[in-house]
């Protein structure tokens, strides 16, 4: 289903660029995603209900998403017509991927054993931008006592691990190879 979601997202992203609506569509789509994220199971039931016609599903879109950008609404209609309404969060995530790539930005999760100061965060963000060549990093921080000390950063599929726990694991591997 990821391929399907990517196709919808790419179409919406392309039209948002072509019509100079990228920021508006991104903003509204984020709100929609937050609103539906707890209702995916209900949307799956709507998609799989054989008594629901395409028009019934379109009416649902009209009733729930009243003042939505017409390009988003059209995409939601296409999802409804193809019984893919439950993919709206997957489509949003794929759209965010295109959006972030366009602006050369990405989300980063910084894990540490304690709450980092702004100065420490700034240093880590600077390290992330140097390592990833991103223009902007959108940061989420988490406390992870399992790290023992240091920090770990996840950006997409990239992990920068400067934790004491990682150092201990690496040291343990070296000792095993030496035996």
Automatic annotation (TrEMBL):
Coiled-coil intervals: none
Locations listed in the record: Cell membrane; Membrane
Keyword Ion transport included in the entry's annotation: yes
Segments passing through the bilayer: none
Designated gene of the protein: atpH
Family: Belongs to the ATPase delta chain family.
Principal place of residence: membrane
UniProt source species: Staphylococcus simiae CCM 7213 = CCUG 51256
Alphabetic keyword roster: ATP synthesis, Cell membrane, CF(1), Hydrogen ion transport, Hydrolase, Ion transport, Membrane, Transport
Listed GO MF terms: hydrolase activity; proton-transporting ATP synthase activity, rotational mechanism
Name of the protein: ATP synthase subunit delta
Membrane topology summary: Peripheral membrane protein
Protein origin, superkingdom: Bacteria
GO cellular component: plasma membrane; proton-transporting ATP synthase complex
A Pfam short name: OSCP
PROSITE patterns, alphabetized: ATPASE_DELTA
Function: This protein is part of the stalk that links CF(0) to CF(1). It either transmits conformational changes from CF(0) to CF(1) or is implicated in proton conduction.
Keyword field contains Acyltransferase: no
InterPro entries per UniProt: ATP_synth_OSCP/delta_N_sf (IPR026015), ATPase_OSCP/d_CS (IPR020781), ATPase_OSCP/dsu (IPR000711)
């Amino acid at each position: 289903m990821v391929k399907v979601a990517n196709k919808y997202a790419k179409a919406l992203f392309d039209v948002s660029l072509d019509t100079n609506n990228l920021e508006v569509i991104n903003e509204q789509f984020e709100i929609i995603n937050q609103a539906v994220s707890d209702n995916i199971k209900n949307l799956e039931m709507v998609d799989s209900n054989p008594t629901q016609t395409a028009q019934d599903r379109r009416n649902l879109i009209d009733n729930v998403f009243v003042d939505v950008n017409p390009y988003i609404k059209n995409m939601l209609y296409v999802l409804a017509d193809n019984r893919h309404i439950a993919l709206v969060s997957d489509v949003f995530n794929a759209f965010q991927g295109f959006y972030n790539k366009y602006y050369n930005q990405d989300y980063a999760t910084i894990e540490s054993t304690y709450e980092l100061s702004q100065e420490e965060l700034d240093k880590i963000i600077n390290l992330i931008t140097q390592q990833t060549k991103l223009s902007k990093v959108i940061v989420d921080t988490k406390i992870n006592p399992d790290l023992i000390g240091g920090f770990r950063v996840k950006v997409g599929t990239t992990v920068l691990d400067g934790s004491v726990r990682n150092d201990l694991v690496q040291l343990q591997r070296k000792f095993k190879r030496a035996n």
